[in-house]
Amino acid sequence: MNRQLKLCSTLATLCAALLFTVAVNATGNNNTESLAGTLIVVNKLGDDVSFIDISTKEIVKSLPTGKGPHELAITKDGKWAVSTDYVGGNSLTVFDVVNAEKVRTISLANYPRPHGILFMQDQTRVAVSSEGSDTAVVVNIHTGEIVSAIDTTQKGSHMVAMPENSKFIYTTNMGDNSVSQLSVTKEKLVKTMKMPDTPEAVTVNRSGSELWVGSNKDGLISIFDTSSDKMLKQWSGFRFPYRILLTQDEKYAVVPDYRQNTLDVFEVKTKQKLKRIQLGDGFGPKGVTFHPNDRTLFLSSYSQDKVAVIQIPSGELLFTLPTGNGPDGIGFSPFRLK
């Protein structure tokens, strides 16, 4: 009798495990299929961008940028992408994503070393940091017009952040260890905020009330109230917090650390660090963007020429995608190339 009970119990356990495995696999397959679209990745060492079909996991097209591309911005509808040609290019390269075509190069010869880039609310202009002139430049990507250039008054203006209304541009100034707040409408500096040493990574929430900054030399992530400049929270234990990105619903924040080969996940509301994901030696995490489902992260691996597709906040690796040489800036489009 005891043997029969034990056998029944064992069989029941095995059946439950099998059903669980089937359910997990089915869920994983459905999730993977729902990610269909195109990933556009800037390849620093290849002077080009890769168009990657997420469903087939293949590079379907590569197009040239200017020299030394670093960052990428993409419109909300996924139709237009722009790279900053930072190391010797001194330009922006504009791509028609739907037709996978390079449509124009916009010279920024007077505003060299363009680096950080974000689309503004109207989705026709971009805000670009020019490290060579220490300005933030507003550019119409369709006409090529330089609408304005706002002096940051600080050295090494490297990355940009903007609230949803695009009324202000924030730049991290690596040379002067500061952040500049610039008025887009008044085209002038509003204020500078002193930061821990070598600030690079930066983002601001949609309302513009909270500024997140990563400091490379001091290995810190800091959150500031933009009205009072008061520090709200700070974490240590980083070596090179390369980027900071919030989910659209502002529930989570992610920070890839280029030198530690880690990805940290934070809960935005409670200001708690949820976990640190170990990516493995030699991963070299850099560019980050979210799928529209707001829980699937695309993370470029600069050292391994691939993109890791990671579920947030669990940290589960779903699969990887191939890239060109030295991937960095990254963007998602719902369109599949014809």
List keywords for this structure.
9% helix, 1 helix, disordered N terminus
Characterization of the model:
This protein is mostly beta strands. The chain contains 1 helix and 28 strands. The protein has one helix spanning 2-33; strands at 38-43, 48-53, 58-64, 69-74, 80-85, 91-96, 101-107, 114-119, 125-130, 135-140, 146-151, 157-161, 168-173, 178-183, 188-194, 199-204, 210-215, 220-225, 231-235, 245-246, 252-257, 262-267, 272-278, 285-290, 296-301, 306-311, 317-322, 327-333. Strands 3-2-1-28 form a 4-stranded antiparallel β-sheet, with no helix packed on it. The relative contact order is 0.13. Mean pLDDT is 92; it is low at 1-30.
Q: How many beta-strand runs?
A: 28
Distance between the termini: 65 Å
List the helices and strands in order: HEEEEEEEEEEEEEEEEEEEEEEEEEEEE
What does the overall shape look like? Answer: globular
**What is the number of helical segments per DSSP (H or I, 4+ residues)?**
1
The main sheet comes to: 4 strands, antiparallel
Q: Which strand order does the major sheet show?
A: 3-2-1-28
Structural class: mainly beta
Write the layout of secondary structure elements.
Blueprint: H1 2-33, E1 38-43, E2 48-53, E3 58-64, E4 69-74, E5 80-85, E6 91-96, E7 101-107, E8 114-119, E9 125-130, E10 135-140, E11 146-151, E12 157-161, E13 168-173, E14 178-183, E15 188-194, E16 199-204, E17 210-215, E18 220-225, E19 231-235, E20 245-246, E21 252-257, E22 262-267, E23 272-278, E24 285-290, E25 296-301, E26 306-311, E27 317-322, E28 327-333
Antiparallel strand pairs: 1-2, 1-28, 2-3, 4-5, 5-6, 6-7, 8-9, 9-10, 10-11, 12-13, 13-14, 14-15, 16-17, 17-18, 18-19, 20-21, 21-22, 22-23, 24-25, 25-26, 26-27
